[in-house]
Design goal:
The chain is mainly beta. The protein has six helices and 35 strands.
Length: 501
């Protein structure tokens, strides 16, 4: 079922420009099988030893297991389809992959595929839908600021310092009480505000964030970071306080994502700083499995590692709720916001916020990289280069008449809403989706079309002219869709007309 999103403006990681230290060679490669040979990224083995309390041999064995089992998880997820209940690593060395299913008849297939089977009552899709319902109930409350799908227990978990109050709020929702578990917790989410990933950059004269990953868009170079770091149009300077770039897009709350286009004095590289003068290569953006090792680079605390705890987490900050973050046990502190999260050589996302610190320990949440790339039409810069994405669908302003459904509403400056009625619509067949937005002449409104991919909302088409009038034409497959109506500037009424197959 579909999920909501939130938008954040914030601080980013800095991409080192002009000069970058080359990564030192590693003598022994990680060999998972005859088809997989990966050098352990410089600094990653040492950080895993320190943060996960492993020996050098154990850290290397863990990474080998994660590489080997990632392809197993991908294949079984696709084969199980709607029965899939999630997957996770177990053991200090991630030596076992557990795959959950709602159908016991899937057990032989899972075992034959190289994983351990676990039979559960609820599919991952059902758990995601339950989390969506709980988010609706708790989004305006600080009684349960952290909520996530826990595939290990086959439940939605809510962390709260006032469990009884949280239980009362959830009781008013339509979710099955057996599906949700409220846990007493002192976890207090806060934003970590304070072109090689992890380096500092500055917004204005004092606000500092960290660079995430280098990206391209057409002929523009830049980097991604957290949305709460800065608003669209905000200027940035680099770690050396030299003029750097301008925020081209920023979303927070609902999501926490942004990207900055840099000037010609900065040369983006497919690297992340490893905290000791070296760099780690970025080769892709494959999503890591729950329980996998992950490392973070930030301008305040440098390089720290841990494991992925949950993939689908909703966080209510004082500034608003952000959905679909990933929760980790990696520590972070203010100023690390926007910094890189990487699993071996695969970009995972940018730091959003956290609880605790790197002295006593804590947890950190990151915005997955995939949503950032699709929202803004960006291409991740990798060691194999970057290919500009295809051009967006043609758009043109106009009067919104002749559509099968018409909705009216109002927006205030900087506000965004989801239509229809803060929910979604279902298209049971493939075909043409068309939409028209007509706003007041004094405003600048934008329009996005999003599709549910069984895990998250993905922006599939956008119309972002400097006017209040937008049009979208998109040919898509059957599924769940929704429109996001955004006020880039100005306030006033709007009309949204749309038709679907």
């Amino acid at each position: 079922m579909p999920r909501r999103h939130a938008t954040i403006t914030g601080y980013l990681l800095a991409i080192t420009a002009l000069t970058v230290t080359a990564a030192p060679a590693i003598a022994r490669p990680l060999t998972a099988d005859a088809a997989v040979v990966v050098k352990p990224p410089p600094g990653m083995l040492a950080a895993l030893q320190r943060d996960l309390h492993l020996t050098a041999e154990q850290a290397q064995a863990r990474l080998i297991n994660e590489i080997r089992l990632a392809s197993v998880e991908k294949r079984l997820r696709e084969e199980l389809g709607e029965n899939f209940g999630g997957a996770w690593f177990t053991g200090d060395l991630a030596q076992t992959l557990v795959v959950a299913t709602t159908d016991k008849d899937d057990t032989p297939r899972i075992v034959a595929g190289g994983a351990r089977a676990e039979i559960v009552s609820r599919s991952l899709g059902q758990l995601n839908a339950a989390l969506d319902t709980i988010d609706e109930a708790l989004s305006d409350h600080m009684a349960g600021p952290v909520r996530y799908v826990d595939v290990r227990s086959n439940q939605v978990v809510v962390l709260s310092n006032v469990p009884s109050t949280t239980q009362n709020v959830i009781a008013t929702s339509d979710v099955d009480p057996v599906t949700v578990r409220v846990v007493s917790s002192i976890e207090r989410p806060q934003l970590l505000s304070d072109l090689v990933g992890g380096n500092a950059y500055y917004i204005g004269t004092s606000e500092r964030c960290s660079v995430g990953f280098s990206v391209t868009k057409g002929t523009q170079n830049g980097f991604v970071s957290a949305g709460h770091c800065g608003k669209r149009g905000s200027t940035t300077s680099g770690f050396n306080h030299v003029a750097q770039g301008v925020f081209q897009g920023s979303t927070f709350p609902a999501s926490d994502l942004a990207w900055v286009a840099v000037n010609n004095n900065w040369t983006p590289k497919p690297w992340v700083g490893n905290g000791s003068g070296g760099t780690v290569n970025v080769s892709g953006s494959r999503v890591a499995i729950e329980g996998a090792s992950v490392c973070r680079s930030g301008s305040t605390t440098g390089w720290h590692c841990g494991t992925i705890q949950q993939l689908n987490t909703s966080i209510t900050y004082p500034q608003g709720t952000v959905a679909e973050l990933t929760r980790t046990n990696v520590c972070a502190e203010p100023g690390d916001s926007g910094g890189s999260f990487i699993a071996i050589d695969q970009a995972q996302g940018v730091t959003s916020g956290g609880s605790g610190d790197c002295t006593s320990g804590g947890v950190t949440y990151f915005q997955p990289i995939g949503e950032i790339l699709t929202t803004y039409g960006l291409t991740l810069l990798t060691t194999s280069g970057a290919t500009p994405p295809p051009p967006p669908p043609p758009t043109a302003p106009g009067t919104c008449t002749g559509y099968s459904r018409t909705i009216t509403g109002t927006l205030t400056n900087g506000q965004s809403v989801y239509q229809p009625n803060n929910r979604y619509y279902q298209s049971t067949a493939g075909g043409l989706h068309t939409a028209c937005l007509d706003g007041v002449d004094s405003a600048d409104f934008d329009l996005h079309l999003q599709k549910w991919d069984n895990r998250k909302w993905v922006t599939v088409a956008t119309s972002e002219s400097p006017t209040p009038d937008e049009k979208i034409t998109y040919t898509g497959t059957a599924g769940y869709y929704r429109y996001r109506v955004i006020s880039f500037s100005g306030s006033g009424a709007y009309t949204l007309g749309y038709s679907a197959p």
